[in-house]
Amino acid sequence: MKMLLKEFPFKIQTIQTDNGREFTYKYQSSEVKSPFEIELNKLGINHKLIPPRTPWHNGKVERSHRNDQRYFYEWETFRNIEELNTKLKGHLEWSNNKTMRTLDYKSPMQLLSEKLELKSIH
Fold first, then answer.
1. Is residue 43 within 8 Å of 5, Cβ to Cβ?
2. How far from 29 is each of 21, 32, 46, CA to CA, in Å?
3. For 33-69, what is each residue's pLDDT tens digit?
């Protein structure tokens, strides 16, 4: 979470996740909050849960995980966490600068840059 907040160039208002126990204890307890929920609450970030058994609501995340598996994890090996992080940084650089049909043949970084330019104009 700290890395995410450090890297994003804008204020995060809401985070959407599935109902995994790493994100919520909603289905185990109506009173006990997960560490993730507690941290979001401290940071003033809303937490939106997708409906159970609806993975298509997380479609972009699922596609991203599939592409990471296909283009990174199946091809790379790591001797330690430092090597993993170094190689992952390179993969993310490539992935975030790759043009995508779903983004009108722009890369995620191009689209983000355009959005930030528009925001600074207004």
1. yes
2. 11, 6, 19
3. 999 999 999 999 999 999 888 877 778 788 888 999 9
71 falls within a domain:
yes
Residue 79 tokens read as: 């001797």
Q: Say if residue 39 is in the same domain as residue 65.
A: no
Distance between CA 55 and CA 65 in Å, rounded?
13
| 73 and 47 in a common domain | no
Instruction: Return the pLDDT at 110.
Output: 95
Tokens of 101: 């049909």
% of the chain at pLDDT higher than 70: 99
| Dmax (CA) of the chain | 48
Q: Residue 24: inside a domain, yes or no? A: yes
